[in-house]
């Protein structure tokens, strides 16, 4: 079955009693036991809720994994996965990764004795050199947030397998529509479902999918134990959002390519980071491991003075954090999403006061271009 069809069929045919075309929102915290020692499969909703189960099955199928789990946020998902590691363990992590993940690793996991080496995972030599005798996993974002470095998943998974490490991929930027790391051998895929999977800037949620059942059951145990679960209403919103994921991703991708090319032609712009551009160093790797390039563009302006002017004068594009929704959003990573990363590291990796991140929505591309063009022209005057 093609993924477009799989997406539309997510969460269907689960209500035998009424034949409802969508999975109902089971707003219940507990379920009656038929007899002593018997269960309908649902007991208490921290452990399982039918609406959440519909979502969890859907994401597991889409990513090609065995177990799917839905969490209260992307960070709840990431933190629950990181509970796999204990005092003395070491991780190799993509260096410009989501600021919240960096914060959990540097301010919380470190207190529990887990150490981390940050490398540019797009550079295979750096990955190899960072592995120590106590390394337990590689944690990859590709493309990275916000510098859009592309990691060759097949090659890093090979390295992980050679050293018996888990490969964990934060697949938020691509969504399963464009990239399915488990099919390439990754062990765990994580999503901030608040982004493309929900797709409408109206829900905060996280998802985890594992390649094998054993690892999935271990993380399910953590999910139930710590209670980092997604509620039924939000689970329903995600299933609903997923049905149009294919259409949305195609449009995000088409718009982003058009806008990236236009930005490249502008004198105000120093550099455009979009893996769909043939000049992007990760372009060929992207073509090999993903079926599209997504809707995220980062760009550096020549003059940092224009940054506040852009943020305060765009009309259609909204100045806000987050990404992956139908509405176009523009973010200033150094002051927002990545503010927790020390300035010296930020500058080294390129998250400077000239860098903006643009989550291209599904509006008409010409309207988005005109919005930016008017701001650039107004600034010049
Ligand atoms: C937003 C984001 C997260 C965190 O997800 P929340 O749902 O906001 O908790 C993690 N990784 C990436 C790549 C993100 O963009």
UniProtKB/TrEMBL annotation:
<protein>
    <submittedName>
        <fullName>Cystathionine gamma-synthase</fullName>
        <ecNumber>2.5.1.48</ecNumber>
    </submittedName>
</protein>
<keyword id="KW-0663">Pyridoxal phosphate</keyword>
<dbReference type="InterPro" id="IPR015424">
    <property type="entry name" value="PyrdxlP-dep_Trfase"/>
</dbReference>
<dbReference type="InterPro" id="IPR015422">
    <property type="entry name" value="PyrdxlP-dep_Trfase_small"/>
</dbReference>
<comment type="similarity">
    <text>Belongs to the trans-sulfuration enzymes family.</text>
</comment>
<dbReference type="GO" id="GO:0003962">
    <property type="term" value="F:cystathionine gamma-synthase activity"/>
</dbReference>
<dbReference type="InterPro" id="IPR015421">
    <property type="entry name" value="PyrdxlP-dep_Trfase_major"/>
</dbReference>
<keyword id="KW-0808">Transferase</keyword>
<dbReference type="InterPro" id="IPR000277">
    <property type="entry name" value="Cys/Met-Metab_PyrdxlP-dep_enz"/>
</dbReference>
<dbReference type="Pfam" id="PF01053">
    <property type="entry name" value="Cys_Met_Meta_PP"/>
</dbReference>
């Amino acid at each position: 079955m093609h993924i477009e069809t799989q997406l539309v069929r997510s969460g269907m045919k689960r209500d035998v009693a009424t034949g409802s075309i969508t999975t109902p929102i089971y707003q219940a915290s507990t379920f009656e036991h038929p007899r002593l020692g018997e269960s309908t499969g649902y007991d208490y909703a921290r452990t399982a809720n039918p609406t959440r189960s519909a979502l969890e099955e859907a994401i597991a199928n889409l990513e090609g994994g065995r177990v799917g789990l839905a969490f209260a946020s992307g960070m709840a998902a990431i933190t629950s996965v990181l509970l796999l590691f204990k005092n003395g363990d070491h991780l190799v992590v993509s260096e410009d990764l989501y600021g919240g993940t960096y914060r959990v690793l540097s301010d919380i996991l470190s207190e529990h004795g887990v150490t981390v080496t940050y490398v540019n995972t797009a550079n295979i030599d750096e990955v190899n050199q960072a592995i120590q005798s106590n390394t337990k996993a590689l944690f990859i974002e590709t493309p990275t947030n916000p510098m859009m470095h592309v990691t060759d998943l097949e090659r890093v998974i090979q390295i992980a397998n050679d050293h018996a490490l888990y490969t964990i991929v934060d697949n938020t930027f691509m969504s399963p529509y464009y990239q399915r790391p488990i099919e390439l051998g990754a062990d765990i895929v994580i999503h901030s479902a608040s982004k493309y999977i929900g797709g409408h800037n109206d829900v905060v949620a996280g998802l985890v999918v594992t390649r094998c059942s054993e690892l999935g059951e271990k993380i399910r145990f953590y999910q139930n134990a710590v209670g980092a679960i997604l509620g039924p209403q939000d689970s329903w919103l995600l299933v609903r959002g997923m049905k149009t994921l294919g259409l949305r991703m195609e449009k995000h991708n088409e718009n982003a390519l058009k806008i990236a090319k236009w930005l490249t032609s502008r004198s105000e712009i120093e550099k455009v980071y979009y893996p769909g551009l043939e000049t992007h160093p990760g372009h060929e790797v992207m073509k090999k491991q993903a079926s599209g390039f997504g809707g995220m563009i980062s760009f550096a302006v020549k003059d940092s003075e224009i940054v506040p002017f852009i943020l305060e004068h765009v009309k259609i594009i909204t100045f806000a954090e987050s990404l992956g929704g139908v509405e176009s959003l523009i973010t200033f990573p150094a002051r927002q999403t990545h503010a927790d990363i020390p300035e010296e590291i930020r500058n080294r990796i390129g998250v400077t006061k000239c860098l903006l991140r643009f989550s291209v929505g599904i509006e008409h591309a010409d309207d988005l271009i005109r919005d930016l063009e008017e701001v650039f022209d107004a600034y010049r005057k």
